[in-house]
Amino acid sequence: MHGTQQIERPLPGFVGGTLDRVDHVRTNPALLAQAFADPAARRLVLEGLEPVEAEGHLLLEPIGAGAQIADHVLLGVDPQARPIFARLVTDLGPNLVPTPRSRAIAGLIPAEEVALYGAARSLVHWHARHPFCSVCGGSTRPVKAGWSRRCEACGAEHFPRTDPVVIMLAEHEGRGLLGRQHSWPEGRYSALAGFVEPGETIEEAVAREIYEEAGVRVHSVRYVMSQPWPFPSSLMIACVAQAQDDALRIDATEIEHAFWCDADGVRAAMAGDSSAPFIAPPQMAVAWHLLDHWLATVVSAGASA
């Protein structure tokens, strides 16, 4: 009896990290100093928030003799047992938003290095934006190897933020609901998305966002996958949900347009067919993988039922 062959699918960008985050080192000053002084330790080279690539890999450099632990964040220890750091900066300049360079890095280097860059970008960005305490306004300084900041006045501790975002495909009778934002390139469509609000479950956020943006009521929300999105610090939570009906009432302040697309149309867009009814999101985005999942599992299961 032969087993079923599993199809290996590509990962979204910023997924697949291999660093050991060594929490026990972060909280132990002696171990942290030892890691920082390790001759094998490396520092990730960034230009502001932008990645630096050389010969198909992120550029890592030895830590100079005059470097200070307080100016760095310990990202973790890589599979070669090298402590990997990133330098914290106070002035990031104008490159705080995603650029073609930061997006394109996913196609230039291995997946585990894309994940390393994503973590570093989010942390460096967070530190630069939080020099003061939100409790009393006092100055804060990095502690725990750069994984939190402590106020020097009131002692409050602040942690790097991660903003949960649901991104979801409503389905109805073999079709998926796609929408586009006003600022996107002409023809680009994707799954609807929105931030999870305080006091809300993922399922409730999915239902609320779809109803707010497209006027569609959904049920039976199913989780699919997640993706860190370091622009600046989101966690994309991909889901599929069943729509009660296909009537649309679009909120034009949220999205420009939405429509129901059948599997053939989605498949054509994913293949880059010029005659497809829309342009698919890039493969580095979890939306591409959500559509791929929908075609491979939901649609095929319905067809064979």
UniProtKB/TrEMBL annotation:
It catalyses: a 5'-end NAD(+)-phospho-ribonucleoside in mRNA + H2O = a 5'-end phospho-adenosine-phospho-ribonucleoside in mRNA + beta-nicotinamide D-ribonucleotide + 2 H(+). Its EC number is 3.6.1.22. Keywords: Hydrolase, Magnesium, Metal-binding, NAD. CDD domains: NUDIX_NADH_pyrophosphatase_Nudt13. Its cofactor is Mg(2+); Zn(2+). Residues 160-285 form the Nudix hydrolase domain. Pfam families: NUDIX, Zn_ribbon_NUD. GO terms for biological process: NAD+ catabolic process; NADP+ catabolic process. GO terms for molecular function: metal ion binding; NADH pyrophosphatase activity. GO terms for cellular component: cytosol. It comes from the Bacteria. InterPro entries: NAD-cap_RNA_hydrolase_NudC, NudC-like_C, Nudix_hydrolase, NUDIX_hydrolase-like_dom_sf, NUDIX_hydrolase_CS, NUDIX_hydrolase_dom, Znr_NADH_PPase. Belongs to the Nudix hydrolase family. NudC subfamily. This is NAD(+) diphosphatase. It comes from Sphingobium lactosutens DS20.
